[in-house]
Design a protein that fits this description.
- This protein is mainly beta and about 325 residues long.
- Helices cover about 5% and strands about 40% of the residues.
Amino acid sequence: MKRLLLLTAFVIFSIMAYSQNAWINEIHYDNPSTDVDEIIEVVIENASSYTLSDFSISLYNGTDGETYSTITLDQYIFGEIIDGFSIYYYNYTSNGFSIQNGDPDGLALAYQGTLIDGQFLSYEGVFTATNGPAAGETSSDIGVAEPGNAGESLQLTGNGIIYGNFTWADPAGATPGMANNAQTFGTIAPDPEPDNHVTGFNVSEITWYSLSLQWNDAAGTNLPSGYLVKFSTTSASDIIAPMDGTAEADNDSVQNIAHGTETTTFYTLESSKYHYFKIWPYSNSGVDIDYKLDGAVPEAEGSTLEEPEFINHETFESGDFGSWTTWS
């Protein structure tokens, strides 16, 4: 019996030792001009139960996968504590250091040298770490990027008590040491699944490289917080339905649209090609996301036009002004 009790106590202690509820909460790494107030913010639940120097943030170079800075959280500045969640931040540029600007780069949160699950993050792409606490791991792209204006940052938004409850948002006013914009901590019950699908879903505008869609917002007592729109170039039946609890990030064939917006456009499509679309309303975000999967999922389809004869053209979808050639 004593051995059993000792074994049980050891297992419980081991689980507690590796179950730190902590996450990277806010990042500012790039400005359009001179980099200022580059910060990283971390949230720790029940921080008084730990030694801050056991937590560390390692910055990673996405080109070679190696760390170029590691700072323990006892060097971070304590901000506020909200319902047991303590917020810490560090201003890198104020301390004579710059965070690399991406394409891609990343960072990892570790406890006693061990990566905290889900906390090897990157921006502007993914890469595999070659050393440090994330060695051998492939990063998770947060899905948003800078440069943002001075005084802005990338932040988690939403309500929850773990990292997966929140969603990364586009640049907004920085909040170092405080809860982010549109962020609350707590166990508020998630919103119920939306009552209805959208109506009037159709292709509204066509070019040789894009298709625009429109619809009427879903009605009912329980309204969605957003819509997921996906397409296939083979058939509507080939479009894979989303799964509750698993949010899908935007890419060339997937878009998340806020409730209240009744149109979107997919660009850089293949010319003279049929595209098939589906749209699902959903409530909540992160691990609480709840898609309306029952009922007839609205579908739309349309073909892009034939590509015109160009001497030269540039869509600017690469985010810069492209490569220009002098023509007669």
